[in-house]
Design a protein that fits this description.
Blueprint: H1 14-33, E1 37-38, E2 44-46, H2 47-54, H3 59-64, E3 67-69, E4 75-78, H4 83-92, H5 95-98, E5 102-111, E6 123-132, H6 137-153, E7 159-165, H7 169-185, H8 192-200, H9 211-216, H10 229-244, E8 250-251, E9 263-271, E10 280-286, H11 290-293, E11 301-307, H12 308-314, E12 326-331, H13 334-349, E13 353-356, H14 363-373, E14 377-381, H15 383-388, E15 390-395, E16 401-405, H16 409-426
Parallel strand pairs: 1-5, 7-8, 12-13, 12-14
Antiparallel strand pairs: 2-4, 3-4, 5-6, 6-11, 7-9, 9-10, 10-11, 14-15, 15-16
The chain binds adenosine-5'-triphosphate and magnesium ion.
Adenosine-5'-triphosphate binds at residues 81, 112, 114, 119-121, 124, 126, 258, 277-278, 280-283, 305, 307, 309-310.
Length: 433
């Protein structure tokens, strides 16, 4: 217990965090290009916020939430997704009063008590965006374009954008009745969960992974056939906008999404070579009634969330990540070690990463460590050199060595590192990052 993390939660170790930072860097630049600013909301919210927004009959609220009563008796939940908190903050801080459009993005951990498996964790991370205040289909197209561009900048291949429309409250009500009638006729072929859903949430039967339910619903009526004229026109404009931008998509009339708040445009980014339950890397849609439902003024909204762990599994292998210019300091003897400490400090203050041995052994041993560290240069300081007021600077790639005066060492290294960065920019210095 003491030395084992909780089931379904994971450490990101130093060798993996470089990938996370790379992803986060690309994401921040991209969202800024598309006009989104960052929002950071708390990890805990009142339980009622999620029950009300995600929907009492959704899988998340029915069985996946980490909900508890705190010491003061308040009902608290670890956020299972990001939209509810953003919308709560939007209403609480009246962001609608100061601007007509609010475009925000977030990244952070989410919590769902699911059965852990590859790509399905109990603490996982999402990166998401929300745009509030725009009902025009142009924002749907912008959001989808940002999502597609993100995959392109990350060079992730093998994904397909699936889109659908879930209509509005009015036309969906008519559709629900038609679907319910259809499902009632097939009730014996449905799984026990879906038999129950016919009454509580019939749309979810289309999303069921059981083979029986898939077969039974093969010719079920589809929401797209029931869209009213406004919802249909909206969907047509979104498709037109995507066509204009040359964005490819698949219309997937069976995609219903598991959260109750969605209306009109819904979408998923699907990994095509992966069958089954974990193939959605990102998902989102419109939620035109949500702001009002939690007590704000009627405000349309749209957003998506990307599953970071699933996305990271798809990032192309980085190949050898060339070391950034780094200096290893090999010091032999007490005086030299003191100089080594000062040199490391001076280099770091110039933004040059420097490392040394804290309990220095002999020269051979320290040179081995220098090699392993991936340093581009090693400074070798022995007692002889100290008395001469100089040290050896070794280029680890060419193995060329030169004697440099101690008081000129920082300047000399700065010069070399600057030259290194210039060729490295084209070649390998920032290849991974
Ligand atoms: P799924 O159908 O895979 O359960 P979902 O419909 O519950 O996904 P959303 O709530 O829409 O997913 O969340 C958006 C994205 O977050 C998903 O596409 C997925 O990449 C990621 N995600 C959701 N749940 C988990 C989880 N338990 N572990 C890791 N990633 C997750
Ligand atoms: Mg789920």
């Amino acid at each position: 217990m003491l030395t084992q993390a909780i089931k379904g939660v994971k450490d990101v170790l130093p060798e993996d965090s470089v990938k996370w930072r790379h992803l986060e860097g690309v994401v921040r630049k991209l969202f800024s290009d598309y006009g989104f600013s960052e929002i950071r909301t708390p990890i805990i919210e009142h339980t009622i916020l999620f029950a009300r927004s995600i929907g009492a009959t959704s899988d998340i609220v029915e069985k996946e939430m980490y909900a508890f009563k705190d010491q003061g008796g308040d009902e608290i939940t670890l956020r299972p997704e990001g939209t509810a908190g953003v919308v709560r903050a939007y209403v609480e801080h009246k962001l609608f009063a100061s601007r007509s459009v609010t475009k925000v993005y977030y990244m952070g951990p989410m919590f769902r008590r699911e059965r852990p498996q590859a790509g399905r964790l109990r603490q996982f991370h999402q990166i998401g965006v929300e745009a509030l205040g725009v009902s025009e289909p142009g924002i749907d197209v912008d959001i989808l374009a940002a999502l597609v561009e993100l995959f392109s900048r990350l060079k992730v291949q093998g994904v397909e954008l699936h889109i659908n429309s879930l209509g509005c409250r009015d036309c969906r009500a008519a559709y629900k009745i038609a679907l319910k009638n259809f499902l009632t006729g097939k009730i014996d072929s449905l799984c026990p969960d879906c038999q129950r859903r016919v009454e509580t949430n019939p749309l979810r039967a289309l999303d069921c992974k059981s083979e029986h339910c898939e077969a039974a619903t093969a010719d079920a009526p589809m929401m797209l056939e029931y869209l009213d004229s406004d919802c249909r026109a909206h969907f047509e404009s979104v498709k037109q906008g995507l066509d204009d931008l040359g964005i490819r998509y698949v219309i997937n009339p069976r995609m219903v999404r598991g959260l109750d708040y969605y209306t009109r445009t819904t979408f998923e980014m699907i990994a095509v070579d992966k069958k089954g339950a974990q193939n959605a890397v990102a998902a989102g849609g419109r939620y035109d009634s949500l702001v009002e439902e939690i007590g704000g003024p009627p405000t349309p909204g749209i957003g998506f969330a990307i599953g970071v762990e699933r996305l990271l599994l798809m990032l192309p292998e980085a190949g050898d990540s060339a070391p950034l210019p780094k200096v290893y300091i090999a010091a032999i003897g007490g005086e030299a070690a003191r100089f080594g400490q000062k040199l490391a400090d001076a280099l770091r203050k110039c933004g040059i990463s420097a490392e040394r041995d804290y309990s220095p052994g002999g020269l051979r041993n320290q040179m081995k460590k220098a090699d392993r560290s991936g340093a581009a240069y090693t400074v070798i300081i022995g007692e002889d050199e100290m008395t001469k007021g100089a040290a050896i600077l070794r280029d680890m790639k060419t193995r060329e060595q030169s004697e440099v005066k101690l008081d000129e060492m920082v300047e000399e290294i700065k010069k070399r590192v600057a030259a290194f960065s210039t060729d490295a920019n084209n070649e390998h210095g920032t290849r991974f990052l």
